[in-house]
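User: Predict the complex.
Assistant: Input components as received:
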Amino acid sequence: MAFLRAVIRRLRSRRLAVGLILAVIAYAAASSVIPNAFGSPVFLAVVALLALSTAACAWERTRSSARALRRTGRVDDAQVERLREKPWLTVRVAQGTEGDPLSASADAMRRLRLSVVRGPRLLEASSGRVGLLGSPLFHWTLAVLLLVIALGRLSRAEGAIGVPVGFSRTDATGSYRTVRAGPLYGGHSGLTLAVTDLRPVKDAEGVDRGVSPLVELREGGTLLRRQRVYPNNPLRHGSLLIHSSGYGIAAVVSVGSGSGGPILQSEPLVDFDAKRPGGTTAAVFDLTAAGGKVLDSITLTIPLDREGGLSLEQLPRRPRALVTVRASGVETSAVLEKGGSMRLPTGESLRVKDFVHYARLTVADDWSVYPIYFLFVLAGIAMSVSVTVPYRRVRVLLAETADGVALHAEVRHSRGDPLFAEMVETALREAAGAAPVLNEESA
Amino acid sequence: MTLEIVLMWAAVTLYAAGSVLFTVGFVFHRPLMRLAVAVSLAGLAPHTAATAIRWVRVGHPPMLGFYEVVPNLAWIAVVLFGLIVWRRRGLEPIGVVIMPISFLMIGASMLVAPRADMPLTPTLASWWLTIHISFAKLSYGSFLASFALAIVFLVRESGGGGRWSDVLEKLPSQAVIDDLSFKFIAAGFIFLGVMIAAGAIWANEAWGRYWNWDPIETWSLISWLVYAVYLHLRLTLGWRGKRAAWVAVAALPVVLFALVGVPLVYKSVHAAYLKGV
Ligand code: HEM
């Protein structure tokens, strides 16, 4: 317990805080030239320490702010004594001043928009008490934000999936072309993703949104969502966020014996690539035919139409698939149009049933996104409160001194605004009948 | 296009004249300072008109490409400067710092003006982008103001002898200048925070990833943290006056690097706003 307390005391050191922030800065600057350095354990450790330190500070600030709030309007004997012996400002009350100088001071403080609590000889005027909570809330929010980001990263999955128009895929590991999941990821949703259309669209305001798929999300037979997906307009469902990150061409290919046996189907995907001869990449896939004989691989590519020396990034007017099949070490090639077929070395026939566009969807599954948005907003509010609503407090004691009655005052401004002290001084002097200043220790 | 360019050149000329008048007024003859303020603020009229014409013509706010972004920063800086001298008489001399910087920014952009039109791509068509960019401007404007105030503070602190001293004496007290510099940093820190958050939200909406450690993202975060260090030094370790002013001065180059240097140094995919340099 004592050990824990000692650790927390260390963590909330203000020098440590500055040192840690500087360390993060130095590391981030260095890492912006070294690839992938942000995942390094050193960086993560520094950030983790900063998060802990921020939480420790927030805890301490919360307690001290709460204490200050509770004590508002209550001044203990030691504080009165300090005010009597060592005031920040002393103003002698002029002889023959009408009325009660403390009441005049109270009015003056109210004119400065402070709210006043007073006794017979002492008053406390303050404002901006909520401001005291801004800084602790801001630091709490930062600490929680770092925690949520860390947990979010650990339990997030992100993958790319290609869905031909008119087809669907299941949100499951096997469907993804590439997928990255954190160690705490709970598993894919098993929902069905379908693309029913793909075309260039403009939105309601006429802004060009690019080539965009119409995406449906289904659970069994139930339609959950149906939406055009384009940048800044992802499809959302719970923690799923589906973006469109491009499109390409798919061929719908089947293999079967043609004599009533089972038919296997696949939709190999081909991407645009200006560096390749036909303007597209080649898809390599395999289909194990019914006869139990294994095809080593099928390679398929679809050359694009060209115009003015450039490949047109769309389905050609009369698409053809260049197919090369390797089976038991033997290679066979063919050029197939829609409906065309070739005999495989295994005896079955391979048919190209159709050519369609396909949509490349990025599926991110991350529960932490909305909590992070929320924390952003909270941090902004807390920080704004902390900066724009400074806590201001004035205490004034009516004291008897050797040369008559005087006002002893103490001023606190949480942001140390020098103009506030000036205004208080002027106001108190007026309240005391514009007597000269006797002493002025600090500003 | 031509009217826009003519107006821009008018603004460049007035800002240049303002810079010269400020410098001369600051060094030799204080009454010139009034004229300097008037001439500089007069430059805002053609600048604003040119920006409006362009906005209508290209159909998006001035936020894409060097030619739109950098003069717009200058515009914000001059407007902020106008607000400062309007609220606090006697702060005119910070124009000596602000106007030449604004002049350089708008002047440099004129060199690339002719090839500067950029379409709004689907990714860029987002409200988050508008928020992102507005707050970026506000933060850079605030940091520039804090920098100028810190410079004024330091010049006065060093005893700024001879001819300068009567000009400098007319300024508000050092404590007030110091405090204003801090206030601009606090405001700029909030604005930059909003800018980063809006950028992260926008990235998530556009690509499905809120943070990617792209060099521009990294350097914006660094800038933000640098000002967090300033605020901590001031509020928790009691740095004020000269030491705080030096930190404020040293922090600005980090921000400028994040804004202008990073796209030049790193070839970031992110830097649509500086294409055309
Ligand atoms: C990510 C890290 C941090 C950031 C970005 C940050 C940012 C800030 C900012 C902007 C302020 C000024 C506004 C305000 O008072 O709320 C501030 C004040 C402060 N911070 Fe931090 N902070 C961080 C971590 C810490 C840590 C680790 C400590 C512990 C020593 C700390 C202690 C304080 C204190 C004591 C204040 C002054 C509060 C006041 O005067 O009312 N901060 N911080």
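The radius of gyration of chain B is 19 Å.
Let me know if you want any component modeled separately.
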